[in-house]
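Re: the 1459-residue chain
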Amino acid sequence: MSSRYDAASNDQIAIILELKCRYHWLASTYYTWLGHRCNDISVSKDADDLSLEYLDVCLEILSEYQQLCGEQSIKTPHLVSPDNRHGSHWASLSVDVLVNYKQYLLSTAVVSKNRQAFHNISCQLKEGLTPDIEPLSITEDQKIELSLLGAELLNRYKAGKEQSREKTEELFNDFILAHGVHLVSENNDERISHDWEVAISTSNGKDVWGNVWSVIPSTKTESIEQISSALLSNPSIMQVLSCSLLLSEGDTQPLLSIYSQLITFALESRARILQSSTEDRIEKGNMMLLASKYFVDKLTDKMSKAPSEVHHKLDDDLDEQTLHGIIQLYQNTFSVEHEIQTEEANDQSSKYPARCDLFHSASRLVFAVRQCRGLSTEIKHSVESIYFVGLVKAFVQGKIEFASLITSVSDKRLKTWQTQLNNKATKICFIANELAELMSKCTTCIDSDGNARVSHLMKGLVGLGDDWHDQSESLDIAPLAQFSESLLWFWKFMSNRIDATSPSENAVKDRLLVSVCATMIALCGSPGVSVDFASSKYSPTNSDYFDSDNSVNGVFLPDVSVESELQHSKRTLTRKYCQLTQCISLAFEFSEKAASRDGCYPSSQHGPFLSLVAVRTLSNMADEIFTLFSEDIWNEEWPYGARECGSTLDSVLSKAYSSIYGFSLTSQAQNNDSSKSYAPESIMAAAQLFRSVKRVYNKHNRRSPPTKAFETMEMALPVVEENAVSKAIRGYMFDADKDVDAVRFSRVDTPTGFPEWVFSEAQTGIGASDEDSSCVEILRRGICRELAKCPISHIGSDEPEEGNEGLSEERESTQRYELNLGRKFRAVIDDLSYDPRNIENWMVLSECLGFKADIICDRLVRENDPYDTTDFRPPMKPAKSLAARSLDELHEIQSSEYTRRNWHPFIGKDLSAYMQYPWSNLNSLRDCSKHVESSLSPASESGHESETVDLQIWREIESIFEKGEYTSWANAWAGMFVTALRTMRMKALRVARYLAKKKLGKMHPSEVCEDIGTALYGDLMASTVYGFPMQRMSNHEKRAIAEGTKYYFEEAIELSKSVDYASDSKTESWEVQFMIGKCCEKIASTLRDEIYPTDDCPKKRIYETMMSEAIQNYSAALGDAQKVEKAGGGQDNKNGGSSHGSREVLYRLHATRFKVLLSAIRQAADDFGLAEMEACRISSTSWFDDSNKLQTSDDDVRHKTWDLYVDCVQGLASCRKGISYFHRAAYRLAQALLWAPAFHDPRFCFHEGSIESIPPFKRGRISELDKDSFAECAANVIGSLFDKKRSHLVAVWVTTSAAPPPFEVLNDSVRKYDALRLKYIKAFIDTMVLCKRRDKIETFLSWAVSSSQDIPGFYEASAMTFQGGNPGNSLLSGSGFLTKVQRAAMIALAKMVLQDLALMKKDGINEKARKLLKDDFKLSHNLFLRLNSTPEEILRAAHSNKPLDEVVAFCRCYLSIQS
C-alpha cells in the first residue's frame, strides 16, 4: 500500500493514513501493556520508550489525516471493553485524545523511571550489605535520591489529584500482579489473637499474612530485608514507595491516604465484579476482598504505630468519611448472606477470608483509630459510633436469623443444621463481644450539675448529635429498642430449661452465655437515653426503687412541695441506677459460672471478659452515683439514700474482682482458685479497685483487706523517680558504715547520720505530669499506707518464686516469709517517704528487720553449749584456785580480748541486699553474693581491679563455696545477714525514739525504749558475735551490751511515769524491772573474777553491787506483778513456756540467789570464806520464807549459808508445785538437790552422794530430799519433764501471749527453745548416769532416734546437698540439736559400759559379770552402728578431737570377750 501511496487518490490516501494511524496506535498500546506487565525492569523501560515513539508517529499521521480529510477523529468503537479497555482513547482517535493519552504515558513512564532508579540504588546497597556483621549504610546522596523518588510517587498517587481513580487502579493492579498469588497462599487470620490490644501491640502482621506482609515494609528493618531479598528484581510500586520513604527517613504518614484509596477501590471493584456475569467473578471478587483486608491490616498497623511516629495531625491524610466508608463497606460485606453461601459452596473459598475475618480486620481498625493520638477525638468518636451502629444492626439481624433457625422444622440431628447453628452462634458471639467491649469503655457520665452525659455510641444509635438536649424531636429509639429486645430474646433462650433442646442447642447456650450477658451488663452502664416518665406524667412509688433506703424519695427535695427540673433529673437518674444495678446483679448471678472463663474475647490480657465488663460498668456507675449525690468519689461510705444499691454493687464487684485478680472482698465472693491473675488495665481501673476496697473495708468493717488487692493496684502505677525524702531515708537505713557499735551503744536522742530535715519537709507528692497525676498521687499514697498497715503474713504472692526447683517445704516456706518481710519493709519505707513522722511505721520497720534476723539465727547450729556438767552437779575433784585480778586489770584484759581482728560485720556498699534476698534459698543466696560482688568490683583508671577489704572478704567466703563446703558458706553469709539486719533495726528504733521523745507521733517513748532494750538484750543470746567470722562474745562486749540494755530499760520506766506526754504508756514497770535484773546479772557475770575486798581495800566488788541490784529489781518486780495479778491483769500459763506471770519473777529471784550461793561454795579454799560472806550479804536481802531467816544469827556464816540454801530450794519447789511443767524450776531444783551435800560441807567431794551425809535435822527442812541418794532426789524432779514420750522429747513449749513482755519475746525463738531442751536433756542424762539408770537412757535414745529433725540440723544437712554435694549421713558430721542429743545419750551409755569394764577388771569376772559383759558388748556394738560412720570418718574424728567413747567401749568389750 505504501508503494502505491504516491499514485493513490485522496480517498485511498485517507484509508492508508487511517490504517497506518491505527497500526501505530496498536503498536503503542501493545508496548504500553508490555511495559506494565513485564517483570524485567530494562525490558519494561524499553517497552515504554517504544510506546511513546509509536504514539508520536501516530500523532503525525493523524495530523496529516485531519488535513487531508478534515475529520477530527478516527472511530474505533470495536476496541472498547467494559472490563479491560475503557476510556476515550479506545472509542476514537483524535489529536486531543492522543495528546492526553501521551501525557498519561509520560506520567506512567515516571513509574518505570523510578522503578529503574530504585532498582539501581538497591543494587548498590545490596553490594555493600554484609549480613549479620555491619548494618546497612545509606549515603546522604542516596537518601536524597530516595526521598525525591518517594515524593514523586506520592505526588502521583495521593488522593485529591485528577484521574485519581485511574491511578489508584494502576497502583492496585500493579500490586495484585506482583503479590496476588502470595496473598492467597499465606493469609491465615487464625494466627492472631482476638484481643486486639494484644494483637496490635505484639503482632507485626506476619502472624496473619506471613512473608507477604513485608512486601510493603512498615519499618526500616523490613525495607532492608526487602533489599536483601533476591525476589526484588521487579518491585511493585508500593514496594518502591514504602522502601523509599523508610530508607530516606521521610514522612510515611501519607501512606494512610493511599491505603484507604486502595481499600475503597478494592471493595467497590468487588461489588462491580460480582454484579457482572463472568464465570470467574467469584474468584476475582474474593481476590479484591482479600486485597482490601490486606490494606486494612496495613492501615491498622500504621495507625497503631502512629503514637510514637506522629509528625503531624493524621486528619490531613485520613479523613472521617474515608474511615466511615471502609467500616460501612466491611459491615455490608459481612452482612450479605447469599454471597457467603455462594463462597462457601465454592471449592476455592478456603483460600479467601471468611466473614468473621473481615470483621476482625474492621474491629482491629476501629481499635487502632481509638488508640491513635494523631486523630482528633471527633473522628475517633464518629468512627466508633458508625462501627457500633453497624454492630447493633448486625446483632439484630443475627438474632432474627438465629431465631428463625432455632424455630425451623429442620431435623436438628442433621450435621448441616448443626453447622449452621454453630456458624450463626459464632457470628452472634463476635458481635456481642465487640458491643460489650465498646459499651463498657464508653459509659454514661454525670456532670457536676446532675445531668447525664450519654456516650457517643448511644447518641449515634438513637440519632442524636453532640448537642443532644436540643434534638429531642429527632430521637429515634427504635434501634435501641430492637437491640434490647434481641438481648432479652437471647436471655430467655439461654434461661429456658423447660422446653426440650438438643445437645447442640445446649452447647450453643453455653457459648452465648458470656457474650450475651456481658453485652447486657455493658448496656446497663449507659442510662440517659431512654424515655423519661415525666413525659407521661408518671408518678413513681416506693416499689420502683430497688433500694431499701426510703430516703431516696426525698433526698434531693427541699421543704417545698414543688420539684425542680434538676431535682427531677437527679431523682430519675438515681432510680435508673438502682434498677440497673439490680439488672446487672441478676445477669452476673445467672452467668457467674462463666465469670472466670477465658477464651477468644477482647481485652483478654486484662482478665476474663464477663468479669472485666462487669467491673468496668459497675466501677463507672459507682463513681457516677457519688457524683450524682455531689460527694467525693474517694469517700469510704455510700451516700445516704444509695447504701443498699451501693452494697449490691460492691457485692457484684467483689465477685468479678475475684475472677480477675484472685482475691475476695466480701464473704459472698469466693477466692478464685485459678493460678492466673491479671494487672489492672489502667490507672483509672486501679483507682476504682482501691475505692471499692476502701468502701467494703470501711471503719465499720473490722476485717483487714486482702494485701493482694493493693499489690495488684501497685502493678498499674507508673514508675517514677524516687523523691528526696525517700532517698534520704533509704540512704540512712542502708548506710554500710562498719562502725556498728556507734549505732548500738549510742545514747543520744538524735540518731547519728539521720537527715532531720525530712520531718519538716512538705511533701507535694510524686507522680505523672499528665491529667491523671492527681489520681496517681492519691492512689500511690493510699496503696503505700494500706500495704504498710497490712500484717506481714498477708503480704506476698502465693505464686512460686523462681529458683525454687527442688526446694524443701521448710526452705520454701521460710523463703516465702523472708520475701513477705522484704515486701512489707519496702511498703513501709514507701509510706515513710510520705509521712516520715509515723512512729508506728518506724517500729514496723524494726520488726521486719528483727524478724528476718531471728529467722536466720533460729536456723543456725549453736556453737556454744548451754549446759555445763560441772555446774549442774558437784565435780569429782575440788575446784582450783583462780588468779583474781583488780578491777582495772580485769577491764584491761577484757578490752584487749575485745579487739576484733579479721572480723567484719558485713560487706557491701549498702545494706539493701540483706533485706532484698532470702537467705534460706541457697540459689537466692548465690544471687545475693553476686550482687554484693558486683558492687565491690569497680575498675580503676589504670585498668587494674580495685582491691578493697570487702572484696577480699568476699573472695575468702567464695573460696569456701568453691571447696564444696556449702554449709560453712551459707553460715558465713548468715552472720553478715544478722549483723546488717540488726544494725538497720537499731537505726529504725532510734528514729522512733527520737520522734516519740520530741512528741512528733502518737506512741509513748517508754514503749520505744522498751523495744530498744529488748532488741539489745537479744544480741546477748547464745553469747555469739555474728558477722564474719562468727565468734564467741567476749566479756567486754557482753557487759557493754548489757549496760546499754539496762540504760534503755531504766529510761523506759522513767518515761512511763512522766506526765509530759499525751498518750498513755503501755509499759508494765514490773516486766521492765524484771529485765533490768537480768541485765544486772549479765554485767555481774563478766566481773566475777575481780579480786575479793580485803582490809586494805574494803570496797565492794562490782559483782556484789550488780547482783544485789538484780535481786532488788526482782523483788520490786515480784511485788508489782502480784499486785497486778490480784487486780485481774495477770497471766499465768500452766502449760509450760515462759508466760508464768509473777511466778516467773519469783523463780528468777530465788534462782539468782541460789546461783550466787553456788558460785561462792565452788570457790577454792583460799577465797572460800570471803566468797561465802559476800554471797550471804547478797542473798539475804530477800527471803522466800522469813522463818528461815530466824534460824541462825548473822555471825554464823556456815549455818546462814545453809538457811539461805534451804530458803532458795523452798522457793524453787513452790514454783514447781504451783505449775508441774515449770521447766526452769524443775531444772534449777534438781541442780540444787545435787549440790546439797556441798552446801552442807564445802569440802565434800562427790562420789555416791548418800543422803546420810547430811544430818536428818538439816535435810528434814527440804521435803524433796526423800530418797536414798541426792541423785535419786534430783532424778525424781528432772524426770518429771521426761515422764512420757514426746515428739519434742522434753516437756517444754513455746507460748506467746497477745501482748508478750520483753522476757517472753526473747524466749519466743527456736534457738532459745532448742537451748533449753538441750540443757534439760543433758541434765536428765547426767542424773540417770549418777543413778545408774541405763534403761532410762536407752529408752530416751530410742525416743531421740525416732524424733523429727530439728530446724538448724535440717538446714545444716540440706545445705550439704546443694549443687549435688554429699549429704553426709554420719552422726559425726552433724552438729544440730538432735545430733547433740543422740551423741549425749550414746556417750553416757558408752561411759557406763567403760565403768562396768573397769569394775570387772578390778573385781574379776564371774557368771553375773560375764552376762553383763555380753550385754555391754551388744549395747556398745549398737552404739557403734548408730554412729553411721566409716572407719575413715571415725579416724578423722578421733584425730581432730579426743577418742570416741562409743568406739572405745566397743573395742574394749570385744577385747575383753576375746581374752
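The chain has a mean pLDDT of 81.
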